[in-house]
Design brief:
This protein has 224 residues and is of the alpha+beta class. It contains two helices and ten strands, in the order H-E-H-E-E-E-E-E-E-E-E-E.
Amino acid sequence: MPLLEVATESASKWVWGWDALIAIGTGILAVATGGLALFTATLASRTSRLADEGAADQRAQWRPVVLPVYDEINNGDIALGRDSERMILVVGLHNAGRGPALHVRIELEVAGNPKRLTPRESRGPLGALAPDEQVQLEFKVADFTSDLQLLCDYRDVADRPYSSSVTITFSGDPVFPNFYDVRCWEEHTVTSISDSGYPKPGLTDQSPKQKLKPDWLDPNWPDG
């Protein structure tokens, strides 16, 4: 075989081998890049989840939690009563959380009655409850036999909504109210009471004024 043909055949084999190496290397690089992208996405998702869980734990530590409270000393005196027309139910509420409960709204639902009741009277603050603060609410009810549900909406200092629901039944002789099945929710409301308007007519609006942005600044640019 002529020397030129031998050299040409050897060069062709070398070129094919080099192309194969390049193809293999490219495939390995593609797999590695895909694996790195998957790892990065998984890491980002896990980091985001951990951040959300950390924020939720932080909120849980400082959130308000409105629960029913019953003073044993006053059980026979204030739990149940009567006036000239209807029976009186007295319910105590306690902010058991570490944050203040703001814009507190209360309703009492009677089984089989679509119209909800609002407190007739309150002993203590009702618009807001500081941590470990209590309030006593009085409701006029038709009888002490129908099941009731006490509904409560409130907010934290960041204006995040919370709510509580307390089931009330009656038993015993003399009749005694039982509080059980207490449910608490976040980012959920249960009452039909609308937000209060601020300010009331004749009063000055003291809320912070929004900063005006220059005309040349993008209106979508965040404040700060």
